[in-house]
Amino acid sequence: MEDVTETLLLVLVVVTALAFDFTNGFHDTGNAMATSIATKALKPKTAVALSAVLNMVGAFLSLAVAATIAKGLVDANVITLEVVLAGLVGGITWNLLTWLLGIPSSSSHALVGGVVGSVLAAVGSQGVIWSGVAAKVLIPALLAPLIAVGVASAGTWAVARLTRDVPEDVSTRAFRWGQVGSASLVSLAHGTNDAQKSMGIILLALIAAGAVPADSGVPFWVILSCAFFMALGTYLGGWRIIRTLGKGLVEIDTRQGMAAETSSAAVILMSGFFGYSLSTTHVATGSILGSGVGMPGAKVRWGVAGRMLAAWGLTLPAAGLVGAACYGIQHGIGGVAGTVVVFAVLVATSVAIWVASRRKPVDHTNVNDAWEEGAVDAGLETEVVEAREAALGRRLDVADPFAAPETPATAAPEIPATAAPPATPAPSTPASRQRAGV
Amino acid sequence: MFVEIDSLLKVVVAGLVVGAGLPALFALGVRLAAGRAVPVEVGTPDGRFTSDGRTVRVERATRPRQVGAAVCFAVVVLAIAGGIAFVAGGGH
């Protein structure tokens, strides 16, 4: 009976780790490719295919896989398979939720949050090395976007000045090439950095279950499956997130796109080189913001950026809560049943989130549609568009048809105010409150 | 100490040099390769729009400018190749 329990737990941990790997894939496609898709340097499907291939290659290149998880963040002795499973579920749940809302978020921090939460539930506060969490997770989360904004705005400003007199078609074509090169490098770097995480978890699980000796290297099937699932996730593409990054933050041209991705690539690689680990998502988002800040005349949607920053701040606590809850469920029910229930909860939550996403789907056909003012995430835009059209329709019915050209222009400033009360279907969603306040 | 100032500073400086410097170098190459630009009136036959809304006429790039552009692009390509090699070598 013991063996069956152990094997089942091991299998579930491996499957869940691969699922996390998959969500990591689609969450981070945008980091590399959103700018190239938005400026049409690459067609949407081509971009995600390229990114998938490079992520796969990168995953095979990552040699320094360690069978540690959350090193320096939690006491290594408290890490059991049950803790790992609960932590993974916490990370996956936060990844899915932020994907639904089209908010870029750090998968690494979600995983760390989940594990910290489940360790807290397992042994309490003494299992967590809080100074490590502060120094290696919280502070870098604050610094990464700042550094990226700085680097990208400096680069964009320089590019803008130097290409001031260059004909637009020439610079657009040239920088498209630059975009492809820099975006490819970011995808490659992501593959090496992030596939390791799931490989490390699976290796840890295998060692803990006695399936491989303690000093074993990573079995080939582990490398292959982690590489494959990350690539698959990348190819399916977090279109909602790509849309937010490419269209929601800043309207970018090819020059900004290239500057942003080069900044991301440089900061990510330098952080790896000097051993000061930074989240790829935080850096990539900061770079895109910086390319808006550095380009004279570009508009940055700080509302969207602010919402992202809020989500980043919530990552650790939110994933932690889910991780803790899952550990609690597993421990409360106990044994095989507990583990199976936790896994079932994960499946149910994932299905629910996926179904919710189909209400307002974002895919490669509408990823580049214009971003509607007032929308703060990819999922709520159609509400804003419908509200606008409804209000405009009412005004045009009432207005003098011969004064029609004037009407839309004068109606425009008043639409947000009139649209919000009559057109809002739900009592008051955050977006409608925001629109009413505009 | 909560912040490893030493490695942090290195990341910032190296990030700036490479992350801002490479796009700037690329832009310089584009500028050189495009040739000398002369502002002209809107509506001039061979006038073309620049990214910030002006109209210019470009003269074909002279030899030195072409060489300069090639050097700029070569450095950028080498840097990206270096980045790939760095990643392939394990990224440390």
TrEMBL record, chain A:
Localization of this protein: Membrane
InterPro entries hit by this protein: Phos_transporter
Listed GO MF terms: phosphate transmembrane transporter activity
Keyword presence, Membrane: yes
A GO cellular-component term linked to this record: membrane
Record's keyword annotation contains Transmembrane helix: yes
Main location (coarse class): membrane
GO biological process, one term: phosphate ion transmembrane transport
Region (Disordered): 402-438
Biased composition (Low complexity): 403-421
Keyword tags: Membrane, Phosphate transport, Transmembrane, Transmembrane helix, Transport
Ranges that cross the membrane: 6-26, 47-70, 76-97, 109-131, 137-160, 220-239, 309-330, 336-356
Similarity comment text for this entry: Belongs to the inorganic phosphate transporter (PiT) (TC 2.A.20) family.
Protein's UniProt name: Phosphate transporter
Species this chain originates from: Cellulosimicrobium composti
Automatic annotation (TrEMBL), chain B:
Domain of life: Bacteria
Keyword set, alphabetical order: Membrane, Transmembrane, Transmembrane helix
TM ranges: 12-34, 67-88
Keyword Transmembrane helix included in the entry's annotation: yes
Protein name per the record: Uncharacterized protein
Organism: Cellulosimicrobium composti
